[in-house]
Amino acid sequence: MGAEEMVAMARAPLFHASREAPPAVGPFKAKVDWDGLRHRLHGALLRPGDPGFEDARKLFNPLNDDHIPAAVAQCESAEDVREGVLAAANRVPLAARSGGHSYVGYSAPHRGLVLDLRRMSAVTVQADGTASVGAGACLRDVYSGLSQANRCLPGGSCFTVGISGVALGGGIGVLQRKFGLTCDHLVSADIVTADGRLLTVSAARTPDLFWALRGGGGGNFGIVTRFTFATDPAPTLTVFVIVFPAGSAAKVLGAWQPWISAAPNELWANFNMSGGDPPSCRVAGCFVGPSSTCHPLLDDLISRSGVMPDRRTVDERDYFRAMRFFSGKPDRESFVASSRVLSKPAPDPGAVVAVLTGRTGMSLIVDALGGAVADVGVQQTAFPHRTAFATAQIYATASAASEAEVTRSVAEVVAGLAKLGMGGGYVNYIDPALPDWPRSYYGPNLERLRSVAHDYDPDRVFDFAQSLSRA
Q: Cα(90)–Cα(403) distance, rounded to whole angstroms?
């Protein structure tokens, strides 16, 4: 089997959205001095009609193309970000954009100002192993820069996702059971606050804000311009995909749940089910160590399931090539999606499979937590799902013509999973239709997050439909 086929088989989409119309412009009393802002910026300020504006404004999901900002500031420094915040604050909607994967387009506020951070993407690894990462870096930048220094950082899968969204929402990924979440490695962050201050946030200097930045979601407290992360030595990794025959999903899920619960922290795997009649499924994952140690673990899963797979692929890789294996390739992709959280394994795997039966074009991806994720207390960082068994991603391809129908279908699956005891949601899979979204995203950390958001943004400069100021 070729590498491209392996990637296609293993890819578990990590981009999720539910749809809503572009938000209306608020009752702003003052206008932005666009000409003055353009003069003060080192980077370019693009407005509708300017060359490059159309490309600069578009996000990953084409279903968000109806979000047309008033301007895109292509920031080159923290000072550019500061100028943008001061110029636009409480005059037009304001948001930062790094990877552009905001699932419902929050990083391109309609008729607002986008502070595009992608030119701030440098990755530098210090002698002590800490890494300085510009807030506009995508995961390809991060993994490439770290691998050249033989270091690693746990993070998401898709190479074009921005490090900012990943880290600020928590940062789940294929190395999390061994190394923890991305936010667990945060040492400090440089941030521009709503009143234009440039702060370096750390546990010693600003403990409440530092706590909130580790899982409180992007866009709530200010705009991070640079991260400093602790990293680990880059290990040899084994990636794998096991494809099972259609109709076996209930048996495989029933075996996968106790198998991954008992697995060593070095092993991470997900259960990926594609809707149909009957649904089909595969298990894909990553093992921190050699393939010789991984193979017996996979044998155990197959034995537990009692199902002979159609295909089994195992490949030993270095850190960068392993991350690339899970990365996917599309530059843009139209989709509707949401999430749920499994506090414990599903007691009736057949009922889970039934929720997706007949829903062609939709996937349910169950990503295992546990291991090092659970070694950190629920309220030690803002990420609240420390003791959960797994996150569940509901992902459906869509087009402009099918969007309304697909959105209804995703909502039905979300409701069906809730009836099976799956509540909560992951803030990086942001979904305006998620019931009780503030408590779903933040659980017992909600009140403290509200307080921190009010302390640093009392005038709601960084306001959007699911900001903490509205929670």
A: 32
